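Supplementary Note 3. Input sequence used for the single-chain structure prediction.
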Amino acid sequence: MKKVGLNTFVFESPPVMEDCFTIVGKKEGEGPLGIFFDKIIVDEYVGAKSWELAESKLLSLAIDELIKKIQIAKEEIEIIVGGDLLNQLTASHFAFRDLDNPFIGVYGACSTFALSTGLVAMFVESSSIRYAISATSSHFCSAEKQFRYPLEFGNQRTLTSQWTVTGAAAFLLKPNDGSKKPKITSYTVGKIMDFGIKDANNMGAAMAPAAAFTISQHLSDMKRDLNYYDLVLTGDLGYVGRDLLIELLKEKEIKNAENLLDCGILIFDPIKQDTHAGGSGCAASACVFGGYIYKLMIEGTFKRILIAPTGALLSPTTVQLGESIPVISHAISVEID
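The predicted structure, written as discrete structure tokens, is reproduced below.
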């Protein structure tokens, strides 16, 4: 591993993304990508007594099903890195409390998929770790309850608001063994930015500048343009954020910015499903990449992907204090031979 430019780490022996497992809720399963997810749950409580424990159970299921899919013992997992949206990483801590595996909890809000996977890739390449997992989750109901209003309140959602994706995803990484699987080739670390936006119901506008910085910094560090990649994805900007991102990248004289796609747009049908500005949440990028893009890479549709999820680093307390919203975006490039 070597550092290139200001913010990017390049893996000289790129860790292999051996496999993944994705679970989504009923609404996500009814969307245009429904057939690609590994499991769709109908009961969004997942048999638990609260939304928070339901999210935790989703994450636990994703890990268990991934391990079964790979056909390895739990004891062979040498480290798990993961996080979620809830206070004190509640979903992750309760999901992994019964696992006897080393665990690192990380908080990047909706950017957690890239954050955790990039860190796992660093562990895998720089040590003798054989198997490692990155995982993340989000749940519409637990997120609404924490950041906005409990569902029982029945408030009207603004047109700029996004629908937090209910789901979880887990990815198993291992050292490069020459296998024909997607590999993590680089990891661009973002920086916290704040453009003074205070509207917690307009995450797209708040997060777009972070995505613009990280994507442009990645291209500068790697001395590339967008054409190097078959697909450049953001995680959860939705329609509002994606339009703003395109304008910001054009200001930076980055060509073909209009070709960028967003996971929060892909996961829901804008006509049949009322999600206003699109999807968001940790599970948006993780489930769209793991359920859809990863499979297309295996099939040979895409060879080079850059995915840059974004995270709004607010809390209910900071919103009530009238603080603006700090944001961040991390990016990973995934390539297959």
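Residues 51-70 form the longest helix (20 residues). The chain has ten helices and 17 strands.
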